[in-house]
From TrEMBL:
GO terms for molecular function: 5'-3' exonuclease activity; 5'-flap endonuclease activity; DNA binding. It comes from Catellatospora citrea. Pfam families: 5_3_exonuc, 5_3_exonuc_N. GO terms for biological process: DNA replication, Okazaki fragment processing. InterPro entries: 5-3_exonucl_a-hlix_arch_N, 5-3_exonuclease, 5-3_exonuclease_C_sf, DNA_polI_H3TH, FEN, HhH2, PIN-like_dom_sf. Residues 24-285 form the 5'-3' exonuclease domain. This is 5'-3' exonuclease. The keyword Nuclease applies.
Length: 302
């Protein structure tokens, strides 16, 4: 666990009106995902006044988060919890499949966002936003555990560009993807089906068949997204395919021949929901974020 929940803010941040705990939206932020997206996707680099210090990742992290809260979170000021990947997160998946995320570049340029991480955490502490990091867990598993333990009817948004989170989506849990155009950034069950022809409950099965290029999980050889969706049509699960008759001919035979492999991929893709997560949402709104420039100033980095 990193940071302290609901620290008293050191900046003059306006307060929020009390709200019923079950109706305060919970915004769970995939911290590394936001940091990488901000560092490499911000319109222009940001430097200190003397031009000696690059600040893009830090500035962009808080700028994108502030705008998302203001423009994309329905239901009022949310409780915000940022979750970062642990240093050894994903080790279990790598033991299962050596190729898991194996080709991701690890040179200085690719890892540039990490240089901003300590100051991002300092900034979160400064403004009173809680954050968590478990050394041996990936952020998506921590977030999945928090989602599973947050009772309805509380609405939950998961701020990320990672489609692994689609498997958690339901009538009250959505993905907030700020890379999508305005007005279309909330990914609901209907949106998952519109884009991929499967339901969130089928997502792990769908990816087990078709593969997950981002995580370098190959899926079943010879099965693409279109075929995978057809095999799972009418809500079938991977477990139901052998008795469905859909694996007896055509490309379905590839699945029959590689069925145990498909089960292996699904086990890797499924998010864990039983971690011993050292943080619990309070049900109270988090403080409003200041302008990112004011935060950078308060951190003494301008």
């Amino acid at each position: 666990m990193g940071g302290t929940p609901h620290l008293q803010p050191m900046l003059p941040i306006p307060g929020t009106e009390p709200a019923a705990p079950d109706m305060v939206p919970l915004l769970l932020v995939d911290g590394h995902n936001l940091l990488w997206g901000g560092t490499f996707g911000f319109p222009a680099p940001i430097y200190s006044r003397d031009k000696t210090r690059l600040l893009t990742g830090l500035f962009a992290f808080f700028a994108l988060l502030r705008v998302a809260i203001r423009e994309d979170v329905p239901g009022g000021q949310p409780e915000v919890l940022v979750v970062f990947d642990g240093e050894h997160g994903g080790a279990d998946r790598k033991e299962t499949h050596e190729g898991y995320k194996a080709s991701r570049p690890a040179d200085d340029a690719a890892l540039l966002p990490l240089q901003f991480l300590p100051d991002v955490k300092r900034g979160l502490n400064l403004v009173g936003i809680s954050w968590a990091e478990m050394e041996h867990a990936e952020a998506d598993d921590v977030i999945a555990t928090i989602v599973s333990r947050t009772p309805p009817p509380r609405p939950i948004l998961m701020m990320t560009r990672d489609k692994d989170y689609y498997q958690l989506i339901d009538d009250r849990v959505v993905v907030l993807n700020t890379k999508f155009r305005a007005g279309q950034r909330l990914v609901t069950p209907a949106e998952v089906f519109r884009r991929h022809a499967v339901t969130p409950a089928q997502w792990a099965d769908f990816r087990a068949l078709s593969g997950d290029p981002a995580d370098e999980i190959p899926g079943v050889h010879g099965i693409g997204a279109t075929t995978a969706a057809k095999l799972l049509a009418e809500g079938l699960s991977l477990d139901e395919l052998p008795a469905s008759g859909r694996l007896a001919s055509g490309r379905g035979r590839h699945v029959a021949e590689q069925f145990e492999l498909a089960l292996k991929w699904r086990n890797m893709i499924r998010l864990q929901t039983d971690l011993d997560v050292p943080c619990t949402p309070t049900g109270e709104p988090s403080p409003l974020l200041p302008k990112p420039a004011d935060l950078v100033e308060e951190l003494g980095l301008w």
